[in-house]
Fold each of these.
Amino acid sequence: MTFISNNSINYLQFSIPDVAKISEITKDVFWIRMPLQFKLDHINLWLLRDKINNQPGWTLIDTGLFNQNNKIIWKLIIEKYFFGLKLQRVICTHMHPDHIGLANWFCKGLDDNRWNAELWMSHSEFFNGKTYSLEGKLSSHHENNSRGLFTLNFFYSHGCNIKTNKIKIDERSNYYSSMVPDFPISFHKISDKQQIKIGKSKWKIITGAGHSPEHVSLYNNKENLLISGDMVLPSITSHIGVFPDEPNGNPLEEFLTSLNKFKLLPKNTFVLPSHGQPFEGIMARIKQLENHHQKRMQEILSNCKNKKTAYELIPKIFSKKLDNHQFFFALCKIIAHLNYGWHMKKLRRFEQQGIIKFETVI
């Protein structure tokens, strides 16, 4: 195995799989890459050999987005690489659309009921995803779109000009349900520290919060492999945002605390992330993530010597022009850092006429 070193991160030189192809990580773990229609243009998925009730088959970790193109790609992969074996279960690391979008389709056996696979995921991720998927569909059937109004009010409170940004915000109100229109009706709960047998190997569950409510990563001690999901990525930072449902939440604190669990793994752990390339150097990468958030907090503290809304901070923190998708994520990120500073008593929070502003504590 060869490596390319980049600031203490060593990239494992596996072949990046082309569309509708797979790359072998080990004899029982295979890498699939599916397209995304965003600036982040791909997601890595993991296909594992399995055997349940003495029947050989496959376990899939994460699914890709719900769309017809991805279904076509998947059918090509299944025809070429499944060798007639059934998909036995789907493990979703978390409820974000690129990870769970096709879960219901897979669990039902595609379009022709060719198998009945079970969904495995954490309790919080399942019920959050199910709620968002259902809520958006219900809201879209009512003239008084309560989800849309709720979202507008949240962003108004953080300084958004509703007239100027209404289209951007409206697009996000029922975004989840448009990306995850079908959600499995049942699941098998997995929890922190649980050991799961997949094929011949045992994988330990490591849960984390901040990026999502109860994100699941899987660690194989024998192979020294970590399927990290979105908790530890090699070259980008996981999105940590505050959303309308929990306006006073502190997800950044939850994320930074969760990273401590990964510090208990061997330093030479091979990480299989959901975005980017497999790599070695998890301790260095965790340090980089911690440093990134510390630096971002310092930027915010420097810019809040006079009272600021989250919206006013966007051009101070993000110099590039943002599309609608990036605008929404950027604003939620800034609110997460503001809330973190507020909870840490490094920022004061003021609310006047429904508008929230923050000021650095001197």
Note: Residues 282-303 form the longest helix (22 residues).
Amino acid sequence: MKILLVGGGSVGSIAPLLSVKRYLEKQDHKIQFIYFGSKSGPERELVEKEKIAYYSIPAGKWRRYFSLKNIFDVFVTLTGFFIALAKLKRLRPDLMLSAGSFVSVPVASSAKLLGIKIVIHQQDLQPSLSNKIIYPFCDKLTVSLPESQKLFFQGLGLLKRRSKAISKIVLTGNPVRADLDLGDKKRAIKFFSLNTELPVLLVLGGSTGAEGLNKLIVGALEPLTKVFQIIHVTGKNKTSKTAQNSNYHAFEFLSSEFPDAIKIADIVLSRAGFSTITELAYCKKMSVIIPMPNSHQEDNGQYLFSKRAAIILRQDGVTSENLTTFLRKLIFEYNLQKIVIKNISKLMPKNSAERIGKVILNII
């Protein structure tokens, strides 16, 4: 059996794929995996660490607003379709699994033409544009949240068509990396050179970094480091050379060290990518979320707010000064922290990789 994993552009679309891969390997060690991704995305390094054959596929970014780039990217996507078609004819996987990315559109289209089974996973609350395009011809769609189910078949008027659409959707939750359970506080203290007398603030900007968050933290560094140890994941080439403090530890990216960092964190300040939200829920973390403005992350943030599962701040209303004041007060709000931690831990099932894995095994 051979399974094609597809994702690109960010690490967020890779984490669930690799989690499902590890579950399937436990069920059958003879399963082979191949990966189609973007040419220059951050996913390549992680995939190759898993010793999975990696193939880059050109794909245009699908924008929901008018842009002349959309016209050019139509031709890029068509090129990607023919390249994917040629590779799939040669590699012949039994099934394609994608967690939503612009790369998945040309690959899924070519896979359908060749009769390859297609399973797509929706992480965020709002359906991604790529998943909405693929959904009508996929075999199964797995979703992280029950609220996402109805968003895929809204507007389907005919009862029979609507019933068929519903039957394709399976609620699974969102898989997390398998090593999150291996986080160790003692190891974190040693690796990050932490002062055990101060609480730890972990700042996550996502795999590609978050310039807005980075500026807020650097601007508040002096007062924040008087009350916090800060572990700051800045994104590639986004670490500030001027930010120097013994209680501030900046990294472009954390890989094997990440479980230790999240284990020791007292508060996590983050964007609202759903892969990160899933990790925060799994680890039961007190979370302060600043969604990326004008993006699907605002819907994710609103969902967390409605569940009282995180503190949500709007970027246009946050300054280094008021963020510092807020975080210094929050560390002593024990009752609030208990409520938020309890609610975020109940967001979704914990055995999501197993659930998606079983969906795959049932249709191959």
Note: The chain has 16 helices and 13 strands.
Amino acid sequence: MLQGVTAMDMFDFLTSRQFTLPALFMLGGLALGFVLERVLLVALGRLWSRKDWDGFQTVRKSLRGMITLWFAIGGAYASTRLAALNPAVRLIYHEAFLALIIFTMSLVIARILAGLLDLYISRAEGAFPSTTILGNIVRITVMLTGILVILKILDVPITPILTALGVGGFAMALAFQDTLSNLFSGLHILASKQLRPGDYVELDTGNEGYVVDVTWRNTTIRTLPNNVVVIPNSKLATTVLTNYHRPVKEFSVLVDVGVGYDSDLQRVEEITLEIAREVLREVHGGVSGFEPQVYYKEFSDIRIEFTVVLRAEEYVDQYRLKHEFIKRLHERYGLEEIDIPSLVTTMYLEPSRH
């Protein structure tokens, strides 16, 4: 026990006749905090709704339950003031209540700052992407600061702790090289703006999909079949990747077509462009303002080859555009009697000789 304080001394007021009044203070603080929290949050919601500030939801979530807890702690503190306690015991309680207040306030501040940071970078053009790693860094920094303040208030020497952390940190850096490599690689990926959550990327390994999140250890990619690929940040930082959302999301879609040598190429081009404009205008994912192009490129053995250039809003929209374009173009070519030759292979089998 601390300075001759026993467990019986710590909880003596709970078994004494003076228990009723301190208990009323504790319950009263809890009830008052419960009411004031709801009144305060409603008032702040009305005030900030007039100013159209989206950060209110972040503040509201961070404060939820905390105001009630603070009033309950205040009631508990008042109860220890009223109870006949040993001065040393009362000091222990007061320091414990103060440490709890500082810890919960640090928690609230960490939540608010992380939420506001996420809100800011999701709107600021060219800012860091909204990822878990940045929010975690903010939370850890604020919480460590709060813990250091608590240790200072409790008269716990901080310098030896920081010295020990410095020496221990060097040893941990050697022991956790891979983990630290992933951490700094993740920060490098975010700082270099190679990718952001929501980008569609393709790796040199053949994996492709949407970036879900960049954490302190790995990057998560969701593929089109709705599977998840988890890649360590250290490997992602050194891999060759194609980001189909950079510098813009719009994506050129190339469709190869061929027609017979007896076709009227001018008429073929007009019909093809007509179908292409129709698809871009009517199919979801097409860029309606884009003017499609037709480029004849070569004479093959059986037909004249050309490429049609469409424009999709993003990479995955190309599949829908190709699907509709090929269907409609084939139907229209059939109506216009435009031939699409295909190579036919005939096999002659000699009868077996016995």
Note: Strands lie at 200-203, 208-214, 218-222, 228-232, 241-243, 251-259, 293-299, 304-312.
Amino acid sequence: EEEKFFTGIIDIVKWLGYEPYKVTHASDHFDKLYEWGKELISRDLAYVCHQKGEELKGHNVHESPWRYRPIQESLQLFEDMKNGKFSEGEATLRMKCIMEDGKLDPVAYRIKYAHHAKTGDKWCIYPTYDYTHCLNDSIENITHSLCTKEFQSRRSSYYWLCNSLDLYCPVQWEYGRLNLQYTVVSKRKIVKLIENNLVRDWDDPRLYTLTALRRRGFPPESINLFCARIGVTMSQTILHPDMLDACVREVLNRIAPRIMVVLEPLKVTINNFPYEKKKELTVLNYPGEESRGYHNIQFDSIIYIEKSDFSQNPTKDFKRLTQNQSCGLKHVALVITLQDIIRVSHINKNYI
């Protein structure tokens, strides 16, 4: 992975209010993983294969013609891989096991000539997820390794690899992946959107990544509340974004001070204003919580309401001000009724 991804994970974890007990990387153990790769070969549980990537795709992969090559030959070829004597895709190290989905001999090491953010140019062979996952968990004394259900087919190789090397074996638990309607949450699909310039980056506000939600102003407490509400389940979950929005409103209702603003003002003149002069109103900063302070607003015979709060051609479910429907004013015990509409054509404005 690029460095921005694992630094981004730490950044988001801290934004959510958590402090990692310890931050580790798979690359911290590359030397040990390489030695274990040689040990697998020595136990005749792995071999160097020259099948191309296209031949290894899918679940009906044919048995490799190099599966039964001599142990010493595979050991030498694996060292040659490490020393840069093969091109990318020319050789892989494969484990002699069958995964739960029937896939034969998953790849343990691939050749990739790329600069690594942690190890620089020391390595030109890199371990795969299937090889690294369980071994790193074992090294770090993880008790339960949690992953989404698409990794359930890898559980057998997880246990097989630890047991084959006589290592401590953690427990792998799978849980259902969370999906939201009307959006994309798959990393693979989001990468395509970015590459095709359909979205700008991972924090594009149109996405539902955590960085995008943070950029949109979602408080971290709302994300934690949302996760606590839905819980963890084995079933695949598809939720409507409204549930997340409800959690945001609940948190903001508790932490956001109240102010009033009119974005598209519509001038309203109250003909029978009940007071002799402007009236000062006291409004709580947080509804129902006097101890958290208040502010004052002025109430006069001329007020401004949001343009969308008035309709001359209302729908059946329109509950605000219309020619035949009165409307209450917030913070004052008054109801206004429309008497007249004044149109000022040269500036394209209405007054009521």
Note: The CA atoms of residues 4 and 226 lie 26 Å apart.
